[in-house]
Specification:
There is one protein chain. Helix 3 (116-133) packs antiparallel against helix 7, helix 4 (146-156) runs parallel beside helix 9 and helix 6 (167-181) packs antiparallel against helix 9. The longest helix is centred in the C-terminal third of the chain and has 28 residues, at 260-287. This protein has helices at 9-16, 63-75, 116-133, 146-156, 160-163, 167-181, 221-232, 244-255, 260-287, 300-311; strands spanning 25-30, 38-44, 48-53, 93-95, 98-104, 188-191, 200-203, 206-210, 217-220. The strands form three sheets. It has a five-stranded antiparallel β-sheet, covered by helices on one side. It is of the alpha+beta class. The two termini are 39 Å apart. The structure holds adenosine-5'-triphosphate and L-homoserine. L-homoserine is lined by residues 35-36, 194, 196, 277, 280-281, 297. Keywords: Amino-acid biosynthesis, ATP-binding, Kinase, Nucleotide-binding, Threonine biosynthesis, Transferase. GO terms for molecular function: homoserine kinase activity. Pathway: Amino-acid biosynthesis; L-threonine biosynthesis; L-threonine from L-aspartate: step 4/5.
């Protein structure tokens, strides 16, 4: 469970009183998903909300960018949850010593084993997101982009071999190959950069919510497609799901378009995305505080994807 910061009922009640019309606190439960921020499901006598307290990887200075992006996408009809402003127009508050936002609750559930039909609509939602982001002028560098992976590898160092024998050398070699082949001339825009199944809320085959924009940044659009491929087209252990990757790409291409150059780059972008999540998961695996209520995510599930991408260069043809 991702609850790093505990919120008392008194502090939460006082927090809610800053807002007009949200009602009085009835209950608050820590949410059992996620690893980055502390999230609570908050029920008042009027409605349901999400309370997010921003933790380790979210820089408070970036919050205005994320919140402006959510407002921009919501204004264009995307199912994203804007932060609610208090009666003074303030979205980012302080609660229990952390930056915190009250966020509109969106209906839907995230799928753990997507079908091709669900992957197609989720891919189309990413295409719609890229279309809507095209005229968003805000910008933020990718703080977990290709330039950051080697420093992260070196920070993990030989401890990686404690996760799996030979892991450091395997990642070092794979990263060198990705660095050598990385494309630098593909189209960029603001991208989500973490659109895993757990960040897409669905009812049946329809997308009802796109959440967790806290890695959004300006980077290659096709890298966003590769991040989605790695997280959607495999089961949680890293075994490929029949037809799901192809359906995801078809959904994205139909909604947005995917050039031949972008498609040709997907094999290296997908190996890069696999390394990004392998490395951040490995870092968390090695450094998660003992008292955190968080379920660590398995770094080796991304080693299996890396192996699969190496063995299937034809996957994106
Ligand atoms: N606006 C929302 N409406 C409904 N549910 C939400 C909303 N925001 C978050 N959630 C729920 O809270 C969970 C955790 O949220 P989120 O993914 O933002 O956390 P995180 O710690 O940043 O996660 P991650 O590990 O994916 O980076 C989601 O899986 C979802 O169940
Ligand atoms: N979605 C990521 C967590 C955010 O870095 C993962 O599952 O590893």
């Amino acid at each position: 469970m991702a609850v790093y910061t505990h919120v008392s009922a008194e502090a939460l009640s006082a927090f809610l009183r800053r807002y007009d019309g949200v009602g009085a606190l009835v209950s608050a439960k820590g949410i059992a998903e996620g690893v980055e921020n502390s999230n609570y499901l908050v029920d008042t006598d009027r409605a349901r909300f999400i309370l997010t307290l921003y933790e380790k990887r979210v820089d408070a200075g970036d919050l205005p960018f994320f919140l402006d992006l959510l407002d921009h996408l919501a204004a264009r009809g995307l199912p994203v949850p804007p932060a609610i402003r208090d009666r003074d127009g303030v979205a980012v508050q302080q609660l229990e010593g952390r930056p915190a936002c009250l966020i509109r609750f969106l209906a839907g559930v995230s799928v753990t084993r997507p079908t091709p039909a669900q992957a197609a609509t989720a891919g189309a939602a990413l295409g719609a997101l890229h279309r809507a982001a095209a005229d968003f002028s805000g910008t933020r560098a990718n703080s977990l982009g290709i330039a950051d992976w080697r420093p992260l590898l070196e920070r993990c160092g030989g401890d990686l071999d404690g996760i799996a024998p030979g892991l450091y050398a395997r990642v070092d070699g794979a990263l060198a190959a990705v660095e050598a082949d990385w494309p630098h001339d593909l189209p960029t825009s603001v991208i989500h950069a973490d659109l895993f199944p757990d960040n897409v809320l669905m009812l049946g085959d329809s997308v009802t919510g796109l959440i967790d924009f806290y890695f959004a940044c300006r980077d290659l659009r096709a890298y966003d497609v590769a991040v989605m491929h790695g997280s959607w087209a495999f089961d949680p252990r890293g075994e490929p799901l029949d037809g799901v990757g192809a359906a995801l790409l078809a959904g994205y291409a139909a909604a947005h378009g995917l050039s031949d150059a972008e498609r040709a780059a997907l094999p290296v972008l997908a190996r890069g995305a696999a390394l990004r999540f392998l490395l951040t998961r490995a870092w968390d695996w090695l450094n998660t505080p003992a008292d955190a209520l968080v379920t660590r995510k398995d770094p080796l599930a991304y080693l299996r994807r890396l192996d699969w991408y190496d063995a299937h260069p034809e996957a994106f043809a």
